Predict the 3D structure of the following.
Amino acid sequence: MELQELMNDWQAQNIQPELDTQILKRLNEFNDNLKKENKLMLYILPGTIYVLGFAVLPFLNSAFLMTMVAALMFLVGLQAIALVFRQINLKKSMSEKPEKYIRTQLRTLRYNLLVTNMITPVYMLILGAICSFYTINLLKDVSITMTYIALGITWTFLIAVFFFGWVKQRKKDKKYIIPAIEELQGHLKSMDL
Amino acid sequence: MKQEGNKKFESLYHAHKQKVYRLCKVLIYDQSQVNDLFQEVMINVWKSLSGFKGKSKIDTWIYRVTVNTSITFNQRQKRISQQEEKYIQNLPPADIKTNESLVRLMEAIQHLNSAERAIVGFFLEGFSYKEIAEILGISVNNVGVKLNRIKTKLKNTIKK
């Protein structure tokens, strides 16, 4: 069969997509659900942490604790801002040429890896520092040995929770994010970009 | 404002739905998911329409959204099918089963990678090399070279 004939046949296909019925109603519903999810991730969660942080700050009687809580708030704020920028960039890149879109996707996936490997350990360290501070303050006058034991238990517990969480996340990353990165890099190569 | 956007989207939808749907059929890896991809493309067009600044033609813009959406959609579907150990259906869609040459063409397209699928999809829709180059962000020469290679590949696969 001639190519032109094949092209004519291809273009002559009369298709009625299933989406035809009440498309705007369905899109509106979808968008409302998405907005609700976005609100939770972008405003409600970081907002709650900020309100709690500012509520607690005046009651903290130590510069060390204040620094730790401020660092916690700073990190949460930073992650929320990063999330906002990522969403804006992804939305923008949707209509860019595929190369730019793939690169934005790659950046997002690499950021997810960074969160697993760099940001989550910092949260654990801050949490550990706050717990240690209270443990030392509560027990230092009681017994030095008990303080050491309590500190040991606290850090063992934190490291265990963090380690198992981290291993689980790494497994997920290895299964999904790393292959996704490799696949996107393959797309870039296949396009000779 | 929202009403105006909705009207604009509806007219775009009716003007481009056939082409976009046919493109989806070429771009998708799992043919049973073609309606889902089409829906996702339309959602992305609808969501991004307010950000369309008119730097390119609206057609170019819509087809770019289609190609980009298909990249992430295929990736996600692959992940889900791996999770559910689901078999990816490489069979041609039911609506072209009556035309044997189109069935063979669709089967041959399944052997192409995503960039090649996009090029062949636009070619089948009658886009010029220049238009394909503009949509995909590659040079016109590159489109020509790739298209020649794709045609040879398709011919060889169909002959088998």
Notes: DSSP finds five helices and no strands in chain A. Chain A has a mean pLDDT of 82.
